Each structure stands twice: as C-alpha cells, then as structure tokens.
Amino acid sequence: MSESVKIKNTGLRGVAVADTKISYIDGEHGILIYRGYGIEELADRSSFEETAWLLLRGELPDREELKAFKDQLIAAREVPGFIWDCLRRLPAEAVPMDILQMAVPLLAVADPDLKDDSKEANLRKAARLIARMPVVIAGWHRIRNGLEPLPHAPSLSHAANFLWLLTGVKPDREIGRDFDVCLVLHADHTFNASTFACREVVSTRAHIYAGIAAGVGALSGSLHGGANAAVMEMLMKLETEEDIPGWVRRQLEQGQRIMGIGHAVYKTTDPRARVLKDMSRRLGEKLGQTKWYERSVCVEEAALGELAKRGKTTLRPNVDFYSASVYHMMEIPQDLMTPVFAISRAAGWCSHIVEEKFGEAQEKPALYRPDSEYVGNYCGPMGCSYSEIEARGSSSGG
Questions:
Q1: What residue ranges do the domains of the chain occupy?
Q2: 160 Cβ partners below 8 Å, 6+ apart?
Q3: Hey, which CATH number is domain 227-328, 1.10.230.10, 1.10.3720.10, 3.40.50.150, 3.90.550.10?
Q4: Does the annotation mark 320 as catalytic?
Q5: Does the active-site annotation cover 263?
Q6: pLDDT tens track for 121-161
Q7: Is 29 a residue of the active site?
Q8: Fewer Cβ in 10 A, N or C end of the chain?
C-alpha cells in the first residue's frame, strides 16, 4: 500500500495546493481581500468592471485602461445566433445551471482565439466569457418564457445591462449600483470547490472554456451553490409563521440547518454579509418590501441565540443569507440565483485560470495529481484471482 499519503480523507481541507496572488481570507477575523484590497472598500468605491480588471491583471486600472476594458466587454456582449438557436430547442423546464454549463463550450466554438494559449489571448477570452455568460442566462430566461432575447444596451454598465436583459426594464441608478456591488462581492473567494475545479482542469493545458465549464459544474452542486435560493425559499415559507423564533428552535432541535447561517471558512460574520444586510434594508425601504429584511433579521437573531445555547458561537450569516432577499427584490427568480453567482464568479475563475497557466508564484508540478489511499479488496501483489462468470454463482441465490 502507498506510503506517500500522510493525511487521509481531508477533502483537501487545510492543505495548500498552490500559491495565489488573487485573493485571501482570514476566517477568524472576517477578512476578505482581492489583490490586497479589502472587500468592503471595493464594494464601496469600485465597480464590477474595475474589480474584474484588478483580479485579472493584478492592479487597479487607470482611467484609459478602465474605459478600454468597459468597451471591450460591451463589444463582446453579442452572442452568436447559433447559441440562441440551440437554446430554443431545449425544454423550458431545463435547469438554468445546466443551460449555462452547456453554453460555455458553445461559446468556445465561436471564439477566434480558442487555439491561441498565450496570456494576452486568454485575457481576451476571459473578457468574452465575463461579457457573454450574463447575456446567455438572461436570454435563456426569456426564451423559456416564450419571449425573445433582448438586445444589450451599450449605455448600461455590466450589472445594469444584465437586469435590463432579464426583466425588460432598465433599472434605476441605485438598483443598478446595488447589483454592481453584489457582483463585486461574489467575484472571487480563494480556492473554493468551483475555483479549484477550474484550476485543476486547466492544469492539464485544457483551454479556458473547459475550465469555466468545470467551475459551473462544481457550483451547480447543492453543497456549493444554491444556498441563497434555499434561503429565499425559507423566507417565503415563513410568510404565515407567527412564531419565527419557535420555528428556528424546532428546526435546530430536529437536527435541521438554518440556511445561510455558517460557513466553511469564516468563524465570524462573513464580511460580504455585512454589506448585503444593509443593502437588503435599503432596498426593502425603497421598494416597500421591508418584510424580507425584517424576517431575515428575525431568523438571524433567533438562530444565533439558539446556536449560542448549543455552544456554536462561531456560526454567523454568510454571503447567501442576505443576498437572497436582495436578489428577490431585484426580480431575479430563485432558480437564477446560482447562475447569477456564476456570472459574477466568472471574473475570479478566469483570473485563477490565467494565474494557473502563467503565474510566477507557483511552486508545484504543472499538473494536479493528488494521491489516494486504496481501501478496496487487496489479494496480494498479483491481485485477486479472476474466475470465469460460470463459476461466480448467482446473486439471487437460485
């Protein structure tokens, strides 16, 4: 048996598999930084386009660089017509994350730089992916409802344009800015499951679209993406609940989770949740929908109180807890909340792919190839003795 495995069954938790310069988390103190900049400052002062450039290029852009990048993203919004033709053939009940994962390789077919694996070509491909993934999701939502995809609006920001393509209504400045902040908050989060999937795939020298498709697939799993949709479902179910603290207590007594509370890394409040909590309050007041914020606060306070009684004092709201009500008030359907996560995280995924392919900080072999501990049948150095099928008996015992 292998002697090389020193740590078994960790799921790679606590195992550093590569260096990165892109983002950093201090879970004990609730700190998240992108390229050295605190997430709170970026949410307050930056834009998604500027943040995407920062993640991809390593530094904040100057005025000319930012304008050129915005123009590049706007020019890349046009999705090839054959993709719409493909989507029109699909059943309306298809899962949106499956649609997005299917669309990414189709976008690869239309990329003129697909076979060019230089760094600059990968940065151009990254811009096309960042620009087109939101268009695909918004267009699919309209197609599944019997409508045609809308033309993009060059005058709108990346965030506001998505809301326009999705709802057919151009958002006001405040809501457009709030969604822009949401995209900044979700843009990267170190080596989570989907980001690691992207990096692992391109470590084989697969192209960027293969890596992004892997990331979308990883995010589609319920243990990674989908928590904000589950939070919104919970909030809607509590519509007629007269005793929310009692409901929370019963859930915990039955061994059930309170969705959106707790995180695999943070041992205190997720810094992104603080920004989103304030946003949920403001949006509720603006739109006359304060019940979602009020209900969320009631669940949060009850959950933290009950968890503290059980000695679980490190569980706090995560990014999904308040993003649920924010997205709902922006008229984003529940089954599109994870795809919205993906269209934001595309900036981080692409940045990690570029770093995996060209990063100077790497001190690892080019190809990810972890060991495993074999725990199956072992019949000696020559293996088990093969018997002909006639001699193996019957599973039915007859």
A1: 23-226+346-358, 227-328
A2: 153, 170, 171, 176, 179, 180
A3: 1.10.230.10
A4: yes
A5: yes
A6: 999 999 999 999 999 999 999 999 999 999 999 999 999 99
A7: no
A8: C
